Amino acid sequence: MRGIPIDANELAERLRIADTSEKQMEALREAMSSFSNSAERQRFLNDHMISEPILYGPLAKRLGDNLEPFNVLQGDIIRTEAAFTPTHRRRGGATFLVATATCDLIVGRRESVLLYGIEPRRRSDFASDGDYRSEISPVLKFKTTNGLYLPALPNDDEDVMYNRLRLDDIAIFNNAHLATVERCASLKMLGWRIFALFNGYVICREADDEVQLRMAWQDVPSARRRAS
Q1: Is 164 in contact with 118 (CB distance < 8 Å)?
Q2: pLDDT at 214
Q3: 133 phi and psi, to 5 degrees?
């Protein structure tokens, strides 16, 4: 497959129809391996991961009145000072990706919105170009679960090399106030599919030993469970 140009829409469709997260990840990693170097992978992802914010008005004209009004979509990258972690309020205009499904972002449908933190990776974070290459290479190949690659945003500082989506950096936001956030970008189709895959793969991935322990627990008599 190396050297064959990748069609972003075809790759997004491959991710959609794969019947397990393992097969989805296999397809994504295979596609990334077709590039000859990290610079090519990064250019491809920069072109196909994010776009300017998707707006309701132009889409309503195109798709008709059946389109439900929205302020924010799942996968939108936003900045806000009104998000809360489990212990404190996040100040300073932190950047997040909206993880809640779009259908649940309608005002009044859910009280809270789930956000994942976005960490900018700056030139000053790396002692050398070699350190940067060592970090970015597995991220671009989707061979690490430490963070999902996102391009630098249009309003990022010039020293931001890329952004890293952190699924372990969780915050919540009041759904009623979504219209007040700054929308920085929306995920394109491929970016949205990759986010869905990464989210499920990391949060819900299945380990063989966990399957075994749950199956074994079913065979433990109730009396022995209580005695333990």
Answers
A1: yes
A2: 87
A3: -65, -40
Listing DSSP states for 176-194 in one string gives GGGGGSEEEEEE-HHHHHH
Please provide the DSSP assignment of the chain as one string: -TTPPPPHHHHHHHHHH-SSHHHHHHHHHHHHHTSSSHHHHHHHHHHHSEESPP-HHHHHHHH-TTSPP-S--TT-EEEES-EE-SSSEE-S-EEEEE-S-GGG-STTT-SEEEEEEEEEEEGGG-SSHHHHHHHHHHHHTT--SS-EEEPPPTTS-TTEEEEEEEEEEEEEEEGGGGGGSEEEEEE-HHHHHHHHHHHHHHHH---HHHHHHHHHHHTS-HHHHHH-
pLDDT attached to residue 215? 87
The reported pTM is 0.87
Q: pLDDT averaged over consecutive 10-residue blocks of the chain (228 residues)?
A: 74 94 93 94 97 93 85 95 74 85 88 94 96 96 93 94 94 91 96 95 81 86 67
Contact of 18 with 148, CB cutoff 8 Å: no
Q: What is the pLDDT of residue 221?
A: 81
- Specify the CATH class of 8-227 in words: mainly beta
pLDDT of 145 reads: 86
Amino acid symbol at 124: S
d(C-alpha 136, C-alpha 42), whole Å:
9
